[in-house]
Design goal:
- By secondary structure, the chain is α+β, with helices and mostly antiparallel strands.
- The chain folds into three domains: 12-105, OB fold (Dihydrolipoamide Acetyltransferase, E2P) (Beta Barrel); 138-263, BirA Bifunctional Protein, domain 2 (2-Layer Sandwich), CATH 3.30.930.10; 278-326, no CATH class.
- The protein has nine helices and twelve strands.
- It has helices at 56-62, 122-127, 129-132, 136-157, 199-207, 245-263, 278-285, 302-305, 311-318; strands spanning 18-31, 34-41, 44-50, 70-79, 94-105, 162-163, 181-183, 191-193, 212-220, 232-240, 298-300, 324-326.
- The strands form four sheets. A five-stranded mixed β-barrel has the order 1-2-3-5-4. Strands 6-9-10 form a three-stranded mixed sheet.
- The radius of gyration is 29 Å and the shape is extended.
- It starts with 17 loop residues before the first strand and ends in a 6-residue tail after the last strand.
Length: 332
């Protein structure tokens, strides 16, 4: 291994240890004779100090370091001088005094800041996606996704489900969007369709007697992109045999509430989930996916507008329809 520790794990208990770290130069500061860098890897940041009195050769090399250089340093973990601790950083009590440095790779000046969460044009972020993924927010998103998927797998495994990977190259099946098609080399003029969901395949598994199936499934749908529509996406796909509606509702509520409590304990979870019928949510909110956090329910104002001069309202009431509105306190 090219490092003995990661950049997020060193603490006061490691003081006096000789360690090897490797990662990216996150920030560099030159304070006269001393050079400080924040060294970054996937797990966090560690401050590294280059002191010419410890190693003049290492200090000389460090003068040429710039952001996003990939380096390895060997040094001793020391307590930071009093008053210089960084309480916002898990490793903020210590620093590594470098005695050896090796530059694995230099770096051109990045097209946008990696160490600052400033707004950047989306096209530029996508062009340099590998740099964008170095930002802390993107790294944290990937780690959160990993933890969520791992928890769901463990949860379902403990309840007797088995994970089955269904085929991706299949025949076209009726769904709500158009298929992405893949031409077949061995069957000229014939095409595979990428699955919009594993719906029919998981039903075959139920017929085969699998009983409890799940899959973290990749799905593909050729439709116009919107905020909640992407050409490819991942979904947790579940199928069960010999169950009733209540069994499914209880299973999923238990999974989601326990997942949030375990993976994101800072998020408040309402238990049990409120249960609303389709007719009820359409009557109270006018949509089948209401955000019930704000209490913005529709109120029947038919009696108020029945004699209104606004013809749309008046005719609706006269034709035995109803007029509803949302009350926004203080917004009049």
């Amino acid at each position: 291994m090219l490092k003995t520790h990661n950049c997020g794990e060193l603490r006061a208990g490691n003081i006096g240890q000789r360690v090897t770290l490797a990662g990216w130069v996150h920030r560099r500061r030159d304070h006269g004779g001393l050079i400080f860098i924040d060294l970054r890897d996937r797990e966090g940041l560690t401050q590294v100090v280059f002191n010419p009195e410890v190693s003049s050769d290492t200090h000389t090399i460090a003068t040429g370091l710039r952001s996003e250089y990939v380096i390895q340093v060997i040094g001793e973990v020391s307590k930071r001088p009093e008053g210089t601790e960084n309480r916002k950083l898990p490793t903020g009590e210590i620093e590594v005094v470098a005695s050896t440095i090796k530059i694995f790779n230099t770096s051109k000046t990045p097209p946008f800041y990696i160490n600052e969460e400033v707004d950047v044009d989306e096209a530029l972020l996508l062009k340099y996606r590998y740099l964008h993924l170095r930002r802390a927010t993107m790294r944290d998103n990937l780690l959160l996704r990993h933890k969520v998927i791992k928890y769901m797998r463990d949860f379902l495994d403990s309840r007797g489900f088995i994970e089955v990977e269904t085929p991706v190259l299949v025949k076209s099946t009726p769904e709500g969007a158009r298929d992405y098609v893949v031409p077949s080399r061995v069957h000229p003029g014939e095409f595979y369709a990428l699955p919009q969901s594993p719906q029919q395949l998981k039903q075959l598994l139920m017929i085969a007697g699998i009983e409890k199936y799940y899959q973290v499934a990749r799905c593909f749908r050729d439709e116009d992109q919107r905020a909640d529509r992407q050409p490819e996406f991942t979904q947790l796909d579940i199928e069960m045999s010999f169950v009733e509606e209540e069994d499914i509702l209880v299973l999923l509520e238990d999974m989601f509430t326990s997942l949030l409590e375990k993976v994101t304990p800072h998020i408040k979870v309402i238990k049990p989930f409120p249960r609303l019928t389709y007719a009820e949510v359409m009557d109270r909110y006018g949509t089948d996916k209401p955000d019930i956090r704000y209490g913005l329910e529709l109120k029947d104002i038919s009696s108020i507008v029945a004699n209104s001069e606004f013809g749309v309202f008046k005719s609706a009431v006269q034709n035995k329809g109803r007029v509803k509105g949302i009350c926004l306190t203080g917004c009049a």
